[in-house]
Amino acid sequence: MVPGWFTEGGDGREFRLLGTRCGACSAVHFPREDAFCRNPACAGGELAEVPLSRRGRVWSYTAGRYRPPAPYVSGPGAEWEPYTVVAVELEAERMVVLGQAVPGVTVADLSVGTEVEVVPGTLSEDAETVWTTWYWRPVEEER
Question: pTM of the full predicted structure?
């Protein structure tokens, strides 16, 4: 949806959120920051793009049961479908990133500490454009 916030591999396995890391203090930022370090204790300004962890653990979650107001894009005549919002603490960075759960995952499917992974998804599309976003999907236990 926003250029430079994520990258895609052809099959989704290389899909990653992209952040920036300050060269002076090593603070990691998401969404990316290209002008200055957001760390108030740092005067550094050299920022490098870094791929963020693909996995993390649910920090918090809630259900979105109403149609948000503008500038949210949604057909006013379309039937509203609730969605699940998930705050995820990334595995390596220990920062919390907000996003939607994959369609079909509800608050009943989650708990604090559930392991999730970032995957590509389609936010919206029309005849000319597909708006891609990221979703959080619970990780199935390996057997």
Answer: 0.85
